[in-house]
Amino acid sequence: MELVAGCYEQVLFGFAVHPEPKASGDHEKWTAVADFTHHAHTASLSAVAVNSRFVVTGSKDETIQIYDMKKKVDHGALVHHNGTVTCLKFYGNRHLISGAEDGLICVWDARKWECLKSIKAHKGHVTFLSIHPSGKLALSVGTDKTLRTWNLVEGRSAFIKNIKQNAHIVEWSPRGEKYVVVIVNKIDVYQLDTASVSGTITNQKRVSSVTFLSETVLAVAGDEEVVKFFDCDSLMCLCEFKAHENRVKDIFSFEIAEHHVVVTASSDGFIKMWKLKQDKKAPPSLLCAVNTNARLTCLGVWLDRETDTKESLPPAAEPSPVSKEEQSKMNKKESGDVVQEEERQSKPNTKKCAVRGDGNKPTRGNSLVSTKKRKVVEMLEKKKRKKKI
Q1: Whole-angstrom Cα distance, residue 22 to residue 285?
Q2: pTM above 0.85, yes or no
Q3: Per-residue pLDDT tens for 288-315?
Q4: Phi, psi at residue 327, to the nearest 5°?
Q5: Distance, CA of 232 to chain centre
Q6: What is each CA distance from 320 to 144, 170, 316, in whole angstroms?
Q7: What is the pLDDT of residues 54-74, one digit of tens each?
Q8: Cα gap 103→30, rounded to integer Å
């Protein structure tokens, strides 16, 4: 397994993790060894996503860079967005979904690296997105004060919910029966069957990242040194522990044989791995820590697995995972909120045009482009901007 983390200093770090046999009576300890650094971006990294073969990173330089974890080489760049890439999510090994400050959500074929759909998702920035475990629905939030539900089978908007403030995080639970929406320091817990808020968790500081540890337990990191575990039903804090010396920027959880692990990344430069106890009221124990000496922004874990059970998004022939009864419940008006069905949709962009031109003037397109070509594109675009000024 490998820890991967992006930073303000434009670098992607990779650390190989080696579990060590536990001696009797000793605390279990793992070691993390520096494996690679990837210097493909020209601005700070803002998002990272991992599947069984690739790590992709988004940046303020408006590109998505691809790194091949098997060969440990640069695999090129995707240059469709015109704005900071804010969120990246893989679904299995076949599809990648990206969101950016240009308001677009793009669905990519993660084998041919072609843009299958490009949807104008929000009037402002897309700040976060989350894919339902079934692969048929997605949620997104943006700076237009809306929470949007997407039908990924048909590539269109299903519902729009107006919220009172701009949300910056949305996350499905592992079974997809609930989801959370984060606005500054407040975490609204929604139930899928009613599409209404069942409760609100309030953190002392702004929330920077959340991850579900189970269907009911949520780990919360924020602009503080501690990580907290909350029960989404009782809304009570189960436990909190000091994880870092500075604010925690990102948090991630995964399960491997006999281990449920939480990984944290902080502005203090450290990435730490924690072993969860069966009782979530007990703080986890530290497995390992590694210092990157960088200001970390985003985090992922690459597990060297041959196959992934979630191979691809479902075909259009399959029914939506939400029943008609549930859809009608989701469509009901709530006090102070408006939920409406999207009636008109602009046709998604399904062109598969590569970045090409006359050799000296490559243009933005929907397919994979080498890092060298991408840098030429950026240089030419900067010159054009200067001429206009």
Answers
A1: 14
A2: no
A3: 999 999 999 999 999 986 544 455 566 5
A4: -65, -40
A5: 21
A6: 26, 20, 9
A7: 999 999 999 999 999 999 999
A8: 41
